[in-house]
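thread from #wetlab-drylab

HS: before we spend reagent money on co-crystallization trials with pyridoxal-5'-phosphate, can we at least see a predicted complex? here's what I'd submit
DV: go for it
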Amino acid sequence: MDDQYHFPLETFMSREKFDRIKQFSKDLETPCLILDLDVIKSNYESLRTNLPFAKVFYAVKANPEDEVVALLRDLGSNFDVATRYELDQLLRLGVSPDRMSFGNTIKKEKDIAYFYEKGVRLFVTDSPMDLDKISRAAPGSRVFIRLLTEGLGADWPLSRKFGCHPDLARQLIKMAVRFGLEPYGISFHPGSQQRDVGQWSTALTTVGQLFRWAKEEAGVTLKMINMGGGFPANYVEPTDSIQQYAEDIKRFLDNTFKSEWPEEVIIEPGRSMAGDAGVIVSEIVNIAKKSVHDRYPWVFLDIGKFGGLIETLDEAIKYPLYFEGQGKPVSIIIAGPTCDSMDILYEKWTYTMPEKTKIGERVYILTTGAYTKSYSSIYFNGFPPLASHILK
Ligand SMILES: *Cc1c(COP(=O)(O)O)cnc(C)c1O
């Protein structure tokens, strides 16, 4: 039956696991997100095994559920924190401040002061004014400088807005010394769901030049390199395995630093840690054509862009959809339930559903553990934020 669809379920999860999720969600109100903590645990362990030299700073924004944070806390992870609200959550869950970095380049001075007061001593920066704020509000702290990347090859680029050009990075290293801060390292984010591992190579080459420049020209020994997130989750378009990414990245580090690797290498995975751990259970609200001659029916789900699937903007992230109905595959347009015409999920990329699919049936949206619930809107059209449940 499965090979009638444009992908087999087994590409993304075992039939056994699917049946467990289906059974677990049988009586739950849709839409809802089911999170499997075992998957997060094994993703964390796989990163640790494949990149044993790297310290993991989980990017909390990807999935900030208490249970996820608590699990990673117990596994020994560190955390990339973006706001004082995330900081408060982590402190409430007993994560010590020496396991956190303030990784947002856009921050108020009073929030920097708050992080400092709570004991955080590791801050990102990418501009003189921000560095100035850090020097006042977090005196003596470690700072790492984020480089601009292009995000080429990434499904969700994170480019332009963050980071600075290497010339400015040099100035910031010198400024940090003048300000009494410790210029600790360099960071970059290659772009989220980065399918071209070569992007790490490009960025690392620049980082290597900065390390050498700092030592020779500024008398500063940088100690840390932070390679950001970017590791993939399993969506419709396939990627290399984590093993392959790890092997390549290790080679790039060897090429750049030879036998003199930096003391500390950090990664900040979000998507690759939580994405595969989630399945959104959704229901078909309507199936309709706009005219009798239309080729493709519109399939309206009870979740859309505002309910947590904002990463379908420009069809950037293509979630695997699993329909259970019978019949040969027919092409469809997929849209959400809100009264906003931008709430269309997929129109250009052709998804299919089994011909006999009916209104009221469930659709399983796979690989939705990252950047879904945390993105869902509060009561637009009265729809509540996306509910989530931990798979038991
Ligand atoms: C969002 C974010 C991450 C996580 O990136 P993924 O591609 O989801 O792994 C890491 N670092 C920073 C600074 C981020 O903003």
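DV: The chain has a mean pLDDT of 96.
HS: ok that's useful, forwarding to the group
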